[in-house]
From TrEMBL:
SUPFAM superfamilies: vWA-like (SSF53300). CDD domains: vWFA (cd00198). It comes from Candidatus Nitrosopumilus koreensis AR1. InterPro entries: VWF_A, vWFA_dom_sf. This is von Willebrand factor type A. It comes from the Archaea. Residues 349-484 form the VWFA domain.
Amino acid sequence: MKENLYDLSANIIYEVADKEKTSIEVTMPEKLSFLELKYGKPTQISLPKPKKSDEKCLYQGILFDSIDDSYSTVWSLFLASLYHSGGHAAVSDYSVYQKWYQRKSPILASQAIKFVEDIRVQEYLKTRYSNPLKNIEMIKFSCELLYNKFLKNILESNEKNRTQHAFRNKIEHFRNEVKESITNNDTPENRIKLADEIYKNRYALGMWEYPFCDNIKPTNFTKYLKYLKLNPTGEFRHYANELGNMWIDEIKKEEKMMEKYKKYSEGLRFDKIKLAPENLGKFFQLRVDSTNFIKKIRSQVSNVTNSMEDPNTEDYGYIEMQKAVQAVASESQGISYFEQDQELRYEESWAIVMDTSASMKIQFQDLQKFLMCIAEAADKINYKGGKWSIHGFSNDFVLIKDFKEKYDDRIKARIGGMNSSGLSFVPDAMKLATRMLEDDINERRYLFLITDGYMMGYHEIDEEFQSAINLASKAGVNVIAIGVPDGMSKYFTVSFPHTEIRKTVANFVRAYTSVAQQYM
């Protein structure tokens, strides 16, 4: 069961596309206004989220007057965009048109190709998703009814109305011929031929797009779409409502989370606190190259003992009589007959903080893979009562995983969505992470700082760095620095430089083991 808007949206797209997650990158950029599709390897799908503006709602360039009244309409359009995007990821291959596309108007040629591919998507959905397609067809019909009213309002006379009606009939006839041709003969050669016919008869492209489609250009009619009223049915209605409920729930949670981090960041110099963008496809692309490292770090870190008892002896606890009898009868020293009455590990709190500034660009992808490895290890060993978080920083502080959040596909998508830019406020990131750890009841606290050690952004940054080190020390926080030069080792509990991910994983396991076992 998917529990958040990004997870469910991406899952619907992957299901419709029926392709590996590594082949599709799904993102939800905060400032995006219109759905964007970019074809290639991988296919890139950028989804705009509905935006709340007082009591109004903005989606795909349409400003609906009331969030409540437009609820089913907005989320029907959003869900339709997921099926539309997933369908394109499944069937569209723009490389077919590459040679034909040359020496043509890029805008018109792209629109002609899109027209052909949209028909192919509709045929694809027809064979697999009857209820969603039925709802999508109803959306189209409702939009066309509105467009007729819109035309009636702007045309001055019945004569103009009749002329426009005749012209639209001609367009509709041409479009139906194209649809029939694609349905009966869906070959690369025929697609190119039809795209060429549409290019030459560009009037058939129309003046507006359905509001769930990609790469929309706003028109006067776009504003009129605020009067659209949709009542979805069946499975489509269920998912539309679920997406909308998740959106409302997430707005509340994010507002609460932002308030918490604003308090943690008081007196610090970050320009803003923000959520990381999401890209689950990129996460899985990175994971393909990191599978062995993930297995290694999960296995080795989970075997680290941080309590006085040695888990390898297992010679303490309550006697389990059946095993004791077996051990005596077989005279074997290899059978343990003690049942441990306490955990072998004390719970810990981890704050993982990664530098995402411009100076990290060269080694960023490598350390992003390492971050993925350490996240998997954190999830493995802190699943009972330990807490762990991930954050990024530059001159902004980026929320990736809060202590209270589950390590699910949304968090993985945030790791995949990280990018490198900006200045490097290392001291401020350390102070914020230390404040978080101070609030936690676990006594064993770790700050894992992933950085190249190059700090820049304001004049007093060196003094603030020393202040951050002192604050962590007083709070009993162990700072393990990954990626810093050897000359900075005196500042941290343990530190080591980054050369390649294999060595960095091995060095991390050694560093963590040495610090964890200091408590024994």
